[in-house]
Specification:
Elements lengths: L1 H4 L3 H4 L13 H13 L5 E5 L1 H13 L3 E5 L12 E3 L4 H14 L4 E7 L2 H16 L3 E8 L7 H9 L4 E5 L4 H12 L5 E3 L6 H6 L8 E2 L6 H11 L5 H7 L1
Parallel strand pairs: 1-2, 2-3, 4-5, 4-6, 6-7, 7-8
Length: about 240
Amino acid sequence: ELAYDGLPAEKRAKIELHFEDDQFDAKLALSAYQKLVYQNHVDVLVLFGSGAGYSVLPAASREGKTSFIFTVDPKVTAGQQSAFRIALEADTQATLLDALLQKRGIRRVALLSTANEAMLQYTKTMKEVIERRGGEVGYNQDFTKGEQDFKTALLSISQKHADATVVSLLPPSLSAFLKQRREALPKLPSFGYAQVENAPEIAASQGAADGTIFSGLALTPEFKARYRAKFHDEAGSFAGYTYE
């Protein structure tokens, strides 16, 4: 909407925006696609999440629709005509994070992820980058969506003598882990990705998210101000990605 608002009037007059909420559900995404195409007659699609991509892109490709999708999973768009990914690549983010780990003398890392295509891609790439430079992944575990009990995981991380955690956890697992990590291993630093910016999760963490370092898109003060003025909320990396 911000990008649309910034277009000259003559260009805005040629474009219509239509919205459907798929709630990160693959079946709802396909239903939303069918409504947008057959009722609203859209030509271009913008999708969020690999689940929506796997569900919608084969049909969109067959029907000649251009699609942009926010995902770091390269398999989503493989072989799909006119489908383009919008994201900082997982290897770019892993390299940036690992440079910071090395700067802080962090050698042995614990990796935790939600069993989601994008989150697993982050973790897989992070592991490759760490081991390539001679670091060690002392703990690597994925968890079912919604998992909120990390006590056993934290015991294992402690026994493995990890220097830091890199978390690719989706809500509500992220805040649950950070709170439990603060209690069990208060001196163990955490790193992550743009999902750390999730405002409800930050609130749910009750301060445990403070100090977590994450990779994300740097936003200009002008963009933040425009976003705040229009949506009465604070912009995060995801807003920046889609705007770009």
